[in-house]
Amino acid sequence: MQTIDKDSSSTILESQSYKQQAQSKKSCREQTSLASNAVYECKGSKFLGFALHSSELDSALGALRAAHPKAVHFVYALRAYQGGQVVERSSDDGEPKGSSGVPVLNVLRGWEMIECGIVVVRYFGGVKLGVGGLVRAYTQAAKLALESAKDLGVIVPYIKCGERAVCVGYGELRAMHYRIKKLGLRVCGEEFEANGVILHIQGDMEALQKLESRF
């Protein structure tokens, strides 16, 4: 068996309820509902928090702007794994600089979330909160959004994944498929050659390393 390395990272979200694990990173499932149970009120202003998968942020912003035409700010932050490192984005969306987007981002950091975004929609209540008040309000709304997502079971353990291309002789093919399935990996493509088959295998990096170590 010959292994062909590919520098590829992605995310697999397990279909299981969230379990508290110390020092373990977590993510949100894709296609999370935008119905929010996270509402924080302060001096008449309402802050609605929405937690979602990072890949859905742009479409979620459009949907939320359409659903809340009277809201004045759509603050967001996200953390995603790209190119071997964690990439972060945030926006104050017209609020004073540093008063909203970064506090939401800090909540994601504190929860050790990856591949997750939070949008906080603000309805202005007529009273200015000041920078300190805004920091507290957006922080609380973001925390409530993640707590709501946790209660709904849409926060799951984050698993760093990769891809390998493995060349297998025809006589080994059946046994290789058995090992792949046993390790919880999946074949995402096959190339049939004269002397064997090139299998493109995706899954948990630790499982991929176990597969390689046996040959």
UniProtKB/TrEMBL annotation:
Biological processes, Gene Ontology terms: regulation of translational initiation
Identification of the protein by name: Impact N-terminal domain-containing protein
Pfam families, alphabetized: Impact_N
Regions crossing the membrane: none
Family the entry assigns: Belongs to the IMPACT family.
Species name: Helicobacter canis
Gene3D superfamilies with a match to the protein in the record: Impact, N-terminal domain
Domain Impact N-terminal: 43-146
